[in-house]
Amino acid sequence: MAERLSGISVFFPCYNDAGSIAEVVRRAQETLPGVAETWDITVVDDGSADSSVQVLEALQPEFPLQIVRHEQNRGYGAALRSGFEAGSKEFLFYTDGDGQYDPRELPLLVAQMRDGIGLVNGYKLNRADAFYRKFTGGTYEWMARAVFGIRIKDVDCDFRLVRTEYLRRVPLTFESGAIGLELVHSLQRAGCRMAEAPVHHYPRLHGRSEFFSLHHVTNLISDVARFWWQLRRGHRRPAARVEQSAPEKPVA
Length: 252
What we know:
- The chain is an alpha/beta fold.
- It has 8 helices and 7 strands.
- α1 links the parallel β1 and β2.
């Protein structure tokens, strides 16, 4: 049998994902017994205006599921921060609730979570998006490497497994999509060792992405610029150094 983690908290940010969130959660529930001894699942609903909450409540009789609700839409980063706060196990995994990543590929990340590794980040084998999203995504990746010194291949891939202890040591402040850059840069700056694993990216089959709305794009650009300025001026509180020697002992 493949090695398993001692415990993992899984969460999904959800915003108007009524058409996909139930299948995403079910796939996670089916996968988790093979990768962890204990687990919990949380969905953070970021003020959805559709029936996402009702869909999630209908799942609760099937298996334990925690629902964290934002009364208003606060942004992707705010949803992630709520999910991070809800994590109680030694490891934490998250991906999006829109179904563009498949939780059944979580074992690919677990296989890379060895002693001394603090973060395993997915990278897209293919990007199943329109050309303009591929272009902007490529530009964002270039900027992350050239301006912020990010060393992983795909900082825009929100398919991540992280040691919760390490996560607690880094300052996370953004409520926009810039939180992914903030998270990886902060962990990298704190000395966290990282590994990567290839994952598939699928077309969005339900609803539409809010990424390119004026509000979200404006907030993202503003936060990235503010992050750069904070780092340049030394106004960013440094993260606590992470210990690379704390071993995880998988169970066969």
